[in-house]
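We read letters as residues; the fold follows as tokens. A sample entry reads:
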Amino acid sequence: MTATLINVIHYGLHYLVPALLAYWISQSSWAKLDWKRIWAILIATMLVDLDHLLATPIFDPNRCSIGFHPLHSWVAIGAYGLLLIPRRTRIIAIGLLFHMFTDGLDCVLRSHFILT
């Protein structure tokens, strides 16, 4: 698997799959918003990547975000899990947890398929 394919998977999961998630969430009994607004909220959870600005260098393609950046820490991920409980924060929690899943998958793919 090449770095290019891993990037396509990573960014596809970050931007395209949330549209499918948004549609699925919009069909649930607890969601009160249409899928476009839900998709916007899911995309807005990408702001969690602002914690990359605290790192030097800001971007390192060989660095795993999970466990390195403060908003990608295991404590933060646990807090995102707790946000699933209240209905008002559930969509945000799903976006944050899916973001962490995507970044975690990126770590696994890069560590197993790219030899540097």
Summary: Residues 90 and 114 are 35 Å apart (CA to CA). The chain has one domain: 3-113.
